[in-house]
Amino acid sequence: MTEIAKRVYDHAWRIDPIVRSLLDTDFYKLMMLQSVFQRHADVRVEFSLINRSKDVPLAKLIDEGDLRAQLDHIRTLRLSRGEGTWLRGNTFYGKRAMFSHDFMTWLEEFQMPDYRLERRGDQYELTFEGSWPEVMMWEIPALAVLMELRGRAVLNGMGYFELQVLYARAMTRVWEKIERLRRMPDLRISDFGTRRRHSFLWQDWCVQAMLEGLGDKFQGSSNCLIAMRREVEAIGTNAHELPMIFAALAKDDAELADAPYKVLENWHDDYDGNLRIILPDTYGTEGFLKRAPDWLASWTGIRVDSGAPETGAEAAIAWWKSKGQDPREKLIIFSDGLDVDKIEALYVQFHGRVKLGFGWGTLLTNDFRGLAPKDALAPFSLVCKAISANGHPTVKLSDNPAKAMGPADQVERYKRVFGVGAQVAEPVTV
Predict the structure, then answer these.
(1) Using an 8 Å Cβ cutoff, are 183 and 57 in contact?
(2) Alpha helix (H) ranges present in 79-135?
């Protein structure tokens, strides 16, 4: 096992690029990528970095030259022969050859497209523009780079013993959380922490700790590179990106209202089993379920990713019952800002009523709260989202209005089309 403090102190990261492989990304990105490659390769999109935590001045903390060097390094990466073999031949979600020959042939030659970086006051404006299959691959590594560079800037001022104590405290914190999780029978929990991790080495350590501490309760990692190296399941299905871009391409209000379901029609054709997980909150969970076609009720489960998770889960249970489905046979995956207290509370409320899964993200792989002076290593809310498709702006409403994005006039239009009424804002910290 890598002795992280020593690695940080001895090498000052000279041997550790932040992103070291095209597989250092989330599995759901590859699943979506294949679907987009097959169906929508000609769509032009723009992605942009959005720092929701305005009190974190990234342009003051991170040297522009260092940022460009990391981004430029990512553009040199290609799938290795071994990585391509793993994707072609490994079993994912019980299916071998999940990725088609045509898609793999393209991916094995793929390199990241160019980026645009500008400083705006105390923040960076980082954007990616081009064909949808190419540009969408920037989301995860771009977030990982910004997060880790901010962490490196803080760690640079620490001595060896200070670093040892820092990581010892962080390791103890993770292990104490794992000990609490061990007490829950039938727990299913996965690492969802790539996008806003402290570092690759730290995410890898957390996965090893979960493996050691939780055994079969640990389902796998969203990170493809770590899943491959540690021989665990690669976990993930789909994300808000798909309905956001489908909606932006809609020609009128009728097509707009149908866009979230058209996405899932395509997904239904492409994937089956435990990959059929509904993500309903892009334009409001309540309205989505009210208008959902009957065939969606047969899907495996649902992911609750915004708003009050209890509300979203209860809505899903009521919907399944109304469709003649047994909720006890359905899977609910909670994935929004989870930590142990919330996992425990949700487990108590829903255990036995549904099949439960937890995607544990930032507060697994980046919980350094209170461990550095001025809390300088505390995680913050950073996202990279599609902001336009074929020149049309994208919109996300969410079950939490604090996560909404898009031009104000389009946000109001989407609220009207999707029947979104009053919402309660929840704090967004990670």
Answers:
(1) no
(2) 81-89, 101-107, 132-135
Q: Cβ–Cβ contacts within 10 Å for residue 329, how many?
A: 11
CA–CA distance, 139 with 29 (Å, rounded to integer): 9
Q: How many angstroms separate the Cα of 92 from the Cα of each of 7, 86, 96?
A: 33, 10, 6
What percent of the chain has pLDDT above 90? Answer: 89
**pLDDT tens sequence across 248-287:** 999 999 999 999 999 999 999 999 999 999 999 999 999 9
pTM of the model: 0.95
Terminal Cα distance for the chain, rounded: 28
CA distance 401 to 10: 45
For residues 365 and 360, what is the distance between their CA atoms, to the nearest angstrom? 9
Number of Cβ atoms within 10 Å of the Cβ of 402: 15
d(CA 340, CA 181): 7
pLDDT, tens digit (0-9, with 9 covering 90-100), for 100-120: 999 999 999 999 999 999 999
* Distance set, CA 65 to CA 289, 322, 346 (Å): 47, 56, 44
Dihedral Cα 26, 163, 378, 358, nearest 10 deg: 40
Beta strands 355-360 and 331-334, pairing class:
parallel
**DSSP state for residue 375 in the 8-state scheme:** G
pLDDT at position 211 is 97
